[in-house]
Amino acid sequence: MDIHVINSDWRAEAPDLMGFITAKLKQSTEGMPYVFADAYATDGLLEILEVRVARGERGILVMDCSRAQVQAVLEWGTCHDDGLLHDLEIFLVRRADQRPTTLV
Q: Exposed site from 15, 32, 36, 104, fewest CB < 10 Å?
């Protein structure tokens, strides 16, 4: 299992990151190989990843992950990589930090 974490500044570096990574991923007959993490709590994201892996997806792009979601997926990957998922590739795109700006 390979898990790649992409920083939140990807839009400046590769505006079509989603298209680029999607083209690299093995297409599933079930639909597009991406998940929008902001639609899930951390546990829900892990559940949807498990469902997608169980139905045979081997390449998944997860957009807008929080730090907690990234950490949870990394931990999930180390706990569940028993050789059966050696061909699984997950790309986690971190959500842009939403730090408040200071007005001067």
A: 104
Domain locations in the chain?
2-94
**Residue 28: DSSP 8-state:** B
- Global pTM? 0.75
The C-alpha atoms of residue 92 and residue 35 are separated, in whole angstroms, by: 10
Nearest Cα residue to 49 out of 67, 29, 40: 40
Q: Tokens 């990589």 appear where?
A: 81
The pLDDT of residue 68 is 95
Picking from 34, 52, 43, 48, the residue whose alpha carbon sits closest to that of residue 92 is: 34
Distance CA 47, CA 69 (A): 12
The span from the CA of 26 to the CA of 60, in Å, is 9
Dihedral angle over CA of 98, 51, 90, 16, nearest 10: -60
